[in-house]
């Protein structure tokens, strides 16, 4: 492989350190920077990306080099900070506009953000410079296919504007239930507690719910969700426990563990799952039908919020669409896209605690009525209140800064305090970010993150957590837990080939 091709290769190996030509006594800063970069590479290999980022940053501050920027870009990519990854790749290119690896890194960040046209231009540059590099050629070809696919889907989207799950269900014949099917069955077409218990056991054994019942659950979910507002108010009686869970991300066996240690959902044991039910983990179908089933069983005591991964682009990239097509059909994947459009965007507990997947806003004086009035039946836009509810993150410094993800914003403690005061709230709960302990309390206790997928993607080594509170005591209490064993199907097994 040519040197250009070697630079382009961006499989899962650690980033390479800068060349060592200028590490003599006449350039001691370069030598120090190279040593820092090499240490960063070692942490990268150990999947300690935060420490790798810190060392690459120190190397850049010591003696800037395009390769340090490219390496830090890759580390940011691994922490899902796609905005930072994009910025670092841009800086590397500005330092050396012929640096092939930086174009590769930028393309990866752009693809993660669903910006395939821009990614294609970078991959075309890489492919032309590396004609003998199979990896580069394959990724260029795959990205081109995705660009064409998106263009085709946009061209026919007008035909689907009147589409609904209910209409799709009417237009298709529900499959005959074979005599040898011994799995859970709806009773008179309805979800019951016995059905849900049977479904959990059925899924534990890696069986598939019959498509007849899967389609019916989707039809009923759309009907139910259409009756929900964008901001759902949840009254919790004084002595009743209420549980808030964060991201599940297709980790079905960890979802089961939550129910084992905290009890199955019921009218006296209500839950809110705060988005990102699917993608990355390879048991997303099992997770979503479990959650949808409990929502149908207990519509007033089991709540679901939309996350940024309940969207067409994310599902295409990170595995849910591929998993649904593998286990059922493309038609069902299309149905999920339509149902997700109706998921509520946030929940208000006892008029004092606001829960959303992402975070707060790029402007002041956003009211709860503003959130109630959001027309959510769409794919998430790239800006505005709906986007920020799904994508934003807190940060420790005052004010607002661009998002590390490239979508939404980062908001400081003053922004949180002003929003709470304006709306007479006590605090917010959000999810969206991996936390080592499964949760984190920021902004003087006013902004709480909860993340419920332990050892995220089988590599982050984080705990999972959920929050419990009572109607007469909204003080959050945290329960943490480690990951549970699962069948040997790797995360991202169904993901788009450019992302897996």
UniProtKB/TrEMBL annotation:
It comes from the Eukaryota. TPR repeats lie at residues 33-66. The active site is at 309 (proton donor/acceptor). One of its GO terms (cellular component) is cytosol. Residues 1-32 are annotated as: Disordered. Its EC number is 3.1.3.16. Keywords: Hydrolase, Manganese, Metal-binding, Repeat, TPR repeat. GO terms for molecular function: metal ion binding; protein serine/threonine phosphatase activity. Its cofactor is Mn(2+). Residues 209-485 form the Serine/threonine specific protein phosphatases domain. The keyword Hydrolase applies. Belongs to the PPP phosphatase family. PP-5 (PP-T) subfamily. This is protein-serine/threonine phosphatase. It comes from Anopheles gambiae.
């Amino acid at each position: 492989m040519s040197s250009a091709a070697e630079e382009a290769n961006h499989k899962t190996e650690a980033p390479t350190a800068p060349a060592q030509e200028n590490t003599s006594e006449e350039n001691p800063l370069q030598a120090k920077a190279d040593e820092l970069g090499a240490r960063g590479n070692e942490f990268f290999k150990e999947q300690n990306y935060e420490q790798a980022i810190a060392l690459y940053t120190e190397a850049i501050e010591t003696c800037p080099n395009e390769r340090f920027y490219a390496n830090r870009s890759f580390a940011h990519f691994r922490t899902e900070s796609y905005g930072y990854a994009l910025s670092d790749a841009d800086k590397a290119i500005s330092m050396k506009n012929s640096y092939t690896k930086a174009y590769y890194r930028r393309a990866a960040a752009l693809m993660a953000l669903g910006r395939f046209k821009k990614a294609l231009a970078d991959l075309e540059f890489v492919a032309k410079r590396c004609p003998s590099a199979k990896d580069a050629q394959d990724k260029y070809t795959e990205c081109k296919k995705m660009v064409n696919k998106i263009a085709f889907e946009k061209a026919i989207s007008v035909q689907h504007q009147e589409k609904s799950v209910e209409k799709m269900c009417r237009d298709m014949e529900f499959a005959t239930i074979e005599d040898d099917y011994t799995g859970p069955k709806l009773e008179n077409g309805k979800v019951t507690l016995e059905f849900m218990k049977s479904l959990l056991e059925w899924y534990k054994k890696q069986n598939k719910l019959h498509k007849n019942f899967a389609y019916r659950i989707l039809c009923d979910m759309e009907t139910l969700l259409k009756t929900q507002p964008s901001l759902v108010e949840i009254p919790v009686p004084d002595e009743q426990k209420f549980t808030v869970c964060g991201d599940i991300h297709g980790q079905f066996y960890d979802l089961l563990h939550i129910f084992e240690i905290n009890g199955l959902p019921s009218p006296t044991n209500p839950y809110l799952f705060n988005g990102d039910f699917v993608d990355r983990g390879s048991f997303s179908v099992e997770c979503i039908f479990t959650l949808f089933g409990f929502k149908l069983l207990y519509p007033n005591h089991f709540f679901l919020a939309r996350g940024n991964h309940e969207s067409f682009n994310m599902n295409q990239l990170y595995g849910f669409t591929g998993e649904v097509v593998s286990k059922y059909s493309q038609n069902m994947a299309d149905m999920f896209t339509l149902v997700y459009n109706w998921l509520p965007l946030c929940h208000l507990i006892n008029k004092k605690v606001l829960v959303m997947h992402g975070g707060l806003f790029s402007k002041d004086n956003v009211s709860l009525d503003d959130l109630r009035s959001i027309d959510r039946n769409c794919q998430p836009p790239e800006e505005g209140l709906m986007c920020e509810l799904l994508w934003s993150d807190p940060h420790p410094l005052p004010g607002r800064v661009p998002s590390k993800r490239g979508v939404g914003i980062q908001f400081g403690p003053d922004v949180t305090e002003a929003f709470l005061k304006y709306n007479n709230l006590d605090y917010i709960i959000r999810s969206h970010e991996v936390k080592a302990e499964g949760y984190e309390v920021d902004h003087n206790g006013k902004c709480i993150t909860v993340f419920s997928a332990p050892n995220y993607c089988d590599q982050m080594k984080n705990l999972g957590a959920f929050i419990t509170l009572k109607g007469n005591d909204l003080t959050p209490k945290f329960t943490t837990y480690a990951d549970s064993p699962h069948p040997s199907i790797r995360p991202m097994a169904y993901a788009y080939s450019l992302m897996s």
